[in-house]
Every structure is written in C-alpha cells, then in structure tokens.
Amino acid sequence: MKNRDVNIVLIGMPGCGKTTIGKLISKKLDIGFCDIDHYIEEKEGRSIPDIFKDNGEEYFRRLESKAVEQISQKSGFVISTGGGVIKFNENMELLKKSGIIIFINRKLENIISDIETDGRPLLKDGKEKLHKLYKERIDLYKKYSDHEVLNEGSLEAVVEKIIRIISN
C-alpha cells in the first residue's frame, strides 16, 4: 500500500463480504480493522437488532453517523461499513476524505443463497427485502465508490484485487 495513512473503506450490500474481506486485508497488510456495526454495538453495549427493536432505524442511523465521524478520523485502517451507510451523503464525505472507497459488489442471488437474516433488522421480513434494498442502494454504492470489485470466486482473489487497486 503506497500510503499507509489512507483508510480502505468497504461498502456494499448486507452479505456481500465486507467484514470477512476487510479482516483478510487487514491481516495481509498488517493494518488495523474496524467494523462500524461492531463499533456501535460496543459503544451502546447492545446488539444492532436490539437497537433497532428498542429505538428504531432513525436512532440507529444517528449512531452510525456518529460512529462514521469518529472512525473516519483514524488513518491506516480497513473500515467495514454497514450496508446503509451510503444513505447519508455526510457519512460518505467523511469516509472519502480519509480513505479509498471500495464497493464490494456481489450477485444478489449469491447473497440470497447464503445470507442469514437473523441479526439483520432490515431483513427480518425475509430475503425478498434484499431485492428492494438493492434497488434503493445500487446507484449510491456506484456513486460513492472509487473502485468496484466483484466478489465472485475465492475470497483470496478478491483480497488480491483490492490490494492491487490500492497499491496503484
């Protein structure tokens, strides 16, 4: 990686592989890793599903924006975002200032075939909700990303693609 002060920010649909790929990149490059959803859970002392159930999506999105503000001040990290982080331009502006935004794109049918909807509040109504989310978000993922990487084949190949992108 040319500039170790730059963050690698992963965006994409729930189940596209952001966290798994982010951890692999972090390990391979020996840099820090931060998952925004886990960061929120630690700060709140409760799970994302509990936050949604007790306080609703709007409250969660405020927590997410606060977390983005704090995490975007870090440098040299791999940051795995929640799938809806792109819903607010302010979030993406902050992340873009300190990082390279990589859209992990994965075929929807592949996500649907192996995603667990338990623990994913926006998918509690079933996997068909993924189609709706995809239609709502695909243009935003493309708009905000600096690069798009298709997650197909092996995870190692995806990680290598991303490392090549950020090394150029």
UniProtKB/TrEMBL annotation:
Tell me which EC number(s) this protein carries.
Answer: 2.7.1.71
Q: Which Pfam families match?
A: SKI
Task: Name the positions where substrate binds.
Answer: D37, R61, G83, R137
Which InterPro entries does this UniProt record tie to the protein?
Answer: P-loop_NTPase, Shikimate/glucono_kinase, Shikimate_kinase/TSH1, Shikimate_kinase_CS
An example of a GO molecular function for this protein is: ATP binding
Which pathway, metabolic or otherwise, does it act in? Answer: Metabolic intermediate biosynthesis; chorismate biosynthesis; chorismate from D-erythrose 4-phosphate and phosphoenolpyruvate: step 5/7
Keyword annotations for this protein, in alphabetical order, are: Amino-acid biosynthesis, Aromatic amino acid biosynthesis, ATP-binding, Cytoplasm, Kinase, Magnesium, Metal-binding, Nucleotide-binding, Transferase
Q: What class of enzyme is it?
A: transferase
Q: Where in the cell is it found?
A: Cytoplasm
What cofactor does its activity depend on? Mg(2+)
- Which GO cellular component terms are attached? cytosol
Which residues are noted in the entry as ATP-binding? G15, C16, G17, K18, T19, T20, R120
For this chain's UniProt record, which GO biological process terms are given?
Answer: amino acid biosynthetic process; aromatic amino acid family biosynthetic process; chorismate biosynthetic process
PROSITE patterns, from UniProt? Answer: SHIKIMATE_KINASE
Q: How is the cofactor bound?
A: Binds 1 Mg(2+) ion per subunit.
Q: Which reaction does it catalyse?
A: shikimate + ATP = 3-phosphoshikimate + ADP + H(+)
Q: Where does Mg(2+) bind?
A: T19
Quaternary structure annotation from Swiss-Prot or TrEMBL? Monomer.
The role this protein plays is: Catalyzes the specific phosphorylation of the 3-hydroxyl group of shikimic acid using ATP as a cosubstrate.
**What family name appears in the similarity comment?**
Belongs to the shikimate kinase family.
Q: Which HAMAP family match?
A: Shikimate_kinase
Descriptive protein name = Shikimate kinase
